[in-house]
Amino acid sequence: MTTADQAWQALAAWQPRRLTDLVATDPEARLQALVRNVADIRFDFAKTHLDDAAVAILSDLAEAQDFAGRRKTLFAGGIANPTEDRAAEHSAERGDGAPESVHRAQMLHQRMRMLVDAIEVGAFGEIRYLLHIGIGGSALGPDLLVDALGRHGSRYDVAVVSNVDGAALAEAFAKFDPAHTLVAVASKTFTTTETLLNAASAMQWLEEGGVDDPYGRVIALTASPERAMEWGVDETRILPFAESVGGRYSLWSSIGFPAALALGWDAFADLLEGAAEMDRHFRLAEGADNICLLAAFADQIYANRLGCQTRAVFAYDERLRLLPAYLQQLEMESNGKSVRLDGAPLGRASAAITWGGVGTDAQHAVFQLLHQGTHLTPVEFVVAREPDHLLDDAHHETLVANCIAQGAALMTGRASDDGARHYPGDRPSATILLDQVTPYGLGALIAFYEHRVFANAVLLGINPFDQFGVELGKEMAKGLAEGTIEFDPATQALMQAALGE
After folding, report:
1. Residue 446 and residue 278: Cα distance in Å, rounded?
2. How far apart are CA 64 and CA 5, in angstroms?
3. Which of 316, 312, 313, 291 is nearest to 386 (CA)?
């Protein structure tokens, strides 16, 4: 059996062929090898540098790193997060996991549904607005869901506030009437400084707006219900979720409450089912037939063979404009690590820096670098077959044509004796084509990215479920604000200049 070190050595020796040659040699075989259709989504990696040799090397690496074993542990509810001695059970929220964890998730979903029903029949008065307060995974997921899916059918106006900058809250306050506003406070630990400060200001706003019992308007979304009760939320208005569900993987739990309320329970159930379909594929498909693992193979040849430090994601759909921001946390917080599971130095590139934007806007901003810059950047296009409007078909046809043409242009380039007009080509892209941006489709898409992150972590031999890197800055910010830590002279001078202290 090939060892992981041998597989990495083989990858270092592997020589990529030019993309146009790969595509031209046997187009039918290439499409068969690098295109998958899962959960009404077409995943097309034909314009990447993956070839049979690279797939074979990375398949050996996956075997050497015990991909099958770690995947089994993940779905069985075993210790998938060894540094914190925890399972990682976001898939149980979708019905795939340890039986007791799936049952618990179903019971907590039913609790959330009952609360949604109570709000709809007026148990909290005439509610027209929902102010969702969280940060990181407690905000990015709900914001993406409501923005993508609630444009034509949201039953409540929803504002997701994460930034501790008071301007973010003030903007929401200006739009909402406190007499008709419900506040959701989302924090896994219910100790997050920024979230609790924003929540306290929201309580003050409700009180000043004439609400007799501000805390009676609060729904707490947390894995620490006892802390929510200490903060002032009645137990009947707390929607718990399991400690084994990580923050950036939590939109399937009660953290998804804004989507369940604004879009309706049926839409939330469809979201879960789309993710569950991707779970089944990831759990059952072997080797390169597994699209999440195949995508990770492409990620590894670019990060650890061709030296690409970034990966760009462009959503050619206005509804998915928040997808790049969501993926930044999912990918970089999960796999931005420098040590292996055994604590030894990683010794190679971990997660690429994820960035991106919305097409066609980005074409007139950053695509110059992608086509002619000195950085090799793998690009991912996300587009849907069906538009979200009833305007002239030319809008969607032009959008899709631009998306597909950009991938072709990156690959083929155009030679010219004039250097300024020379396009080198051989620049990779993948295209993800959804039938429609529906709750089912978006659920499957997000679950694909989750499992791709896990597959990359297995190949690298790292833990994608801890995030100690975010803690030091938080601790020092608290110490700086409270004056409990003595800082260096440069930091002290900067604090004095900023706040006059």
Report:
1. 9
2. 9
3. 316
Mean of pLDDT values over 211-218 = 96
Rounded Cα gap, residues 7 and 2, in angstroms: 7
Task: Report which secondary-structure segment, H or E, holds 433.
Answer: strand 429-434
Cα angle 94, 99, 100; round to 5:
100
Spatial distance between the Cα atoms of 299 and 311, rounded to a whole number of angstroms: 9
Q: How far apart are CA 196 and CA 138, in angstroms?
A: 13
What pLDDT, in 10s, does the model give residues 86-113?
A: 999 999 999 999 999 999 999 999 999 9
Sign of CA dihedral 335, 337, 342, 348: positive
363-410 residue pLDDT tens: 999 999 999 999 999 999 999 999 999 999 999 999 999 999 999 999
Residue 371: count other Cβ atoms within 10 Å of its Cβ: 16
Length of the chain: 501
Q: Write out the catalytic residue numbers.
A: 333, 364, 474
pTM of the model: 0.97
String of DSSP letters for 148-185: HH-TTT-SSEEEEE--SSHHHHHHHHHH--GGGEEEEE
Coil, helix or strand for 390?
Answer: coil
The SS3 call for residue 76 is helix
List C-alpha distances in Å: 389 to 35, 144, 395, 401: 29, 19, 9, 17
| Token pair listed for 93 | 């929220």
The predicted pLDDT at position 58 comes to 98
